[in-house]
Amino acid sequence: MAQYRSDKDIQGITECCKIVAEVLNELYSYIKPGITTIEIERKADRIIKNNGAFPAFKGYTIPGLPPYPAAICASINSCIVHGIPREDVILKEGDIIGIDVGVGKNGYFGDAAKTYAVGLISNDARILMEVTEISLSNGIEQAVEGASVGDISYAIGSYVTSKGFYVADRLTGHGVGKNLHEEPMIPNHGVKGNGRRLIKGMTLAIEPMVNYGTNQVNEIGWEFFVADNSLSAHYEHTILITDHEPLILTQ
Ligand code: MF3
Ligand code: CO
């Protein structure tokens, strides 16, 4: 349960989130046409371990699938989330790639994701990325003590829909802190006022996954794809609920 946390807990979670942010920031200059997703994996893994932490996704299990094999998810174009890094997948000009990073240290966790442009990308791709990133900001803005999970969900989903895009079915954000995934789930669409009340000290991973052409998804093993093969973008931050503005821990 994501609920009240001690100062020590919040410090530990903050430390993990800083490492996540360092990885994602380092990747801006690294992601270019011609590199492979396994090279991104290795760079991320090195930064995590240099910080005395471990990659929280590696070995993560859910029923029915082999343990997740990598430190990051690298989800290209129509891959929504959980793309597995590969030796033989080479980034090309015009791709967009979502990189998702989870870090564990001292019993605490942090989780965030960003979508990166590979070289010059289409206007459609640029707009999809912008709308997804703004939807995350809109969701975060709602995350204050006394608001509800539904307020976050509504802010994300209504903005995405107003721009003509689609929130990916079945995929949600989540509590994070002493585990990678905790309660409550944070859907990316919903009804204002519905769901759990937010209280000071909760740490949440808010993560809109936005598709260009349809909300429908296809699952192939770990990997989720847009059913019509159109583009998808993903941004995620771990945030701390306070009695004022939420604190973005993975900035
Ligand atoms: N940030 C993603 C999530 O919360 C990444 C999970 S990858 C997994 O679902 F391997 F850990 F599942
Ligand atoms: Co997450």
Q: Which sequence of SSEs, written as H and E, runs from N to C?
A: HHEEEEEHHEEEEEEEEEE
N- to C-terminal distance: 24 Å
| Overall geometric form | globular
Which strand order do you get reading across the main beta sheet?
8-7-9-14-15
Characterize the quaternary organization of these chains. Answer: single chain
DSSP strand content: 25-35%
- Computed over alpha carbons, the radius of gyration is 17 Å
pLDDT averaged residue by residue = 97
Number of helices: 4
Number of strands: 15
Description:
By secondary structure, this protein is of the alpha+beta class. 28% of the residues lie in helices and 25% in strands. The protein has helices at residues 7-30, 37-50, 123-141, 149-162; strands at residues 54-55, 72-76, 79-81, 96-105, 108-117, 166-167, 173-175, 182-186, 203-206, 209-211, 217-220, 223-226, 232-234, 237-240, 247-248. The strands form four sheets. The chain has a five-stranded antiparallel β-sheet with strand order 8-7-9-14-15. Helix 1 packs antiparallel against helix 2 (37-50) and helix 3 (123-141) packs antiparallel against helix 4 (149-162). The longest helix has 24 residues, at 7-30. The model has no long low-confidence stretch (mean pLDDT 97). The chain binds 2-amino-4-trifluoromethylsulfanyl-butyric acid and cobalt (II) ion. 2-amino-4-trifluoromethylsulfanyl-butyric acid is lined by residues 57, 60, 68, 73, 82, 100, 102, 111, 113, 174, 205, 236.
